[in-house]
Write a structure and sequence with these properties.
The protein is α+β, with helices and mostly antiparallel strands and 386 residues long. The radius of gyration is 23 Å and the shape is flat. It contains 16 helices and ten strands.
């Protein structure tokens, strides 16, 4: 699921049942810009009403979904075989007797909608799969994955920052399947089912998340999609519901701030961004947004302050070091590139791309010993991790 394309001017994070429990928020007692933004008065012309908030059944099951899951797994008994059969049936073409679900990055659906439309992003597919897997008696949960950021040096040093979710099915024992990666955990082997398995690596930071956080991600993601479609009222209600489901993730606040910034309510956007940054002082996306917003407003001092903070965090990121190393290799400066790769590998020891580029450099330098060490690391990562 594509979470966000991050331009240098405006950074927006898009993400991932619905809990009926709405968390309380303390901010409405205040009268400042943050409370004003949360109330909705600038968008709706009045405070929002609780009954206006969306209430989607994210983990819902239709009779057709239940029948499909039962039919797809009727010939197998083991839990891991059921997990495999369900995934293959959903992804197989209709000509082959499957559901023919295809990837679509641009619309966040519930599981039922994804099944009916045969299209899903990573969150929609996960909601659908988890609901159907649970119907079969499998212990399935939503697994949040932090994908590494990537940079485009040719486009104003813009970057792509994504969050990703997939399904994690807890197994009584490990079994390696051709279409899944098996997580190395301290307890038992867990099967990870991913709509885009090629993008998933076991060493990426990840965790199983609860239904309220899943709902927060869903409403935030859908809210930003509605905002992009010009549906301002609906967008606000979805984004507001997201924060009522969970106030903890800074990326939910980042989306909410970007919504207000897009409508040029800068005082409210600033208050939202700063609150998100107080929750997570290392949120690179919010720093980037603040730097861009202050530049729009002509506040050069604040622009430079946050621009510098962005640079500090960016320069310390191993994936930025890798991107810079690739650029230096293209310029013929292997030695500087190798120095950056060594720093990157100290921070991130599980990324095969780092070792692969280092091996290429060592090979060109005639250092066959270190080149072989790098290739050994690549082999270890490709065979032990999964």
């Amino acid at each position: 699921m594509k979470i966000s394309v991050v331009p240098s001017v405006l950074v927006v994070l898009l993400l991932s049942a619905c809990s009926s429990v709405v968390q309380k928020t303390p901010f409405l007692a205040d009268k400042g810009p943050l409370a004003q933004a949360l109330s909705g008065e600038l968008i709706l012309g009045r405070n929002y009403k609780a009954e206006e908030l969306p209430n989607r059944d994210l983990f819902g099951l239709s009779p057709e979904m239940e029948a499909f899951a039962e039919s797809a797994t009727a010939a197998v008994r083991l839990q891991d075989s059921k997990a495999e059969a369900l995934h293959l049936a959903l992804m197989s073409s209709t000509d082959a007797g499957g559901r023919g679900v295809t990837y679509s990055a641009y619309y966040t659906n519930t599981g039922v909608e994804a099944f009916e439309q045969r299209q899903a992003n990573c969150l929609s597919y996960t909601l659908m799969y988890v609901a159907m897997a649970r119907h079969l008696g499998l212990n399935a949960e939503v697994n949040e994955v932090m994908l590494p950021p990537t940079w485009d040096m040719r486009a104003g040093d813009t970057y792509l920052f994504m969050r990703h979710v997939n399904a994690k099915v807890f197994m009584p024992r490990k079994r390696s399947l051709p279409w899944v990666r098996v997580m190395e955990t301290a307890d038992v082997g867990d099967i990870v089912v991913d709509l885009e398995m090629r993008r998933f690596k076991a060493h990426y930071k990840q965790k199983v998340i609860g239904k309220d956080l899943v709902a927060a991600q869903f409403y935030s993601n859908r809210g930003m999609e509605l905002a992009a479609e010009g549906k301002t009222t609906e967008a606000f209600l979805y984004l507001r519901k997201a924060l009522l489901m969970s106030e903890e993730p800074s990326y939910i606040w980042s989306n909410f701030g970007s919504f207000y910034r897009r409508h040029k309510f800068y005082a409210q956007a600033e208050a939202i961004y700063l609150h998100g940054l107080a929750i997570n002082p290392r949120d690179y996306t919010i720093m980037h947004n603040l730097a861009g917003m202050y530049q729009e407003l002509g506040n050069d001092a604040k622009h430079q302050e946050y621009k510098q903070r962005v640079r500090q965090h960016r320069n310390a990121n191993p994936y930025y070091m890798f991107k810079r190393a690739e650029e230096l290799v293209a310029l013929g400066d292997d030695e500087k590139a190798l120095n950056l790769l060594k720093k990157a590998l100290k921070k991130e020891k599980g990324e095969q791309r780092f070792f692969r580029l280092a091996a290429e450099i060592y090979e060109r330098q005639g250092d066959t010993h270190n080149a072989e060490l790098m290739r050994d690391k690549i082999y270890q990562l490709s065979t032990i991790r999964f």
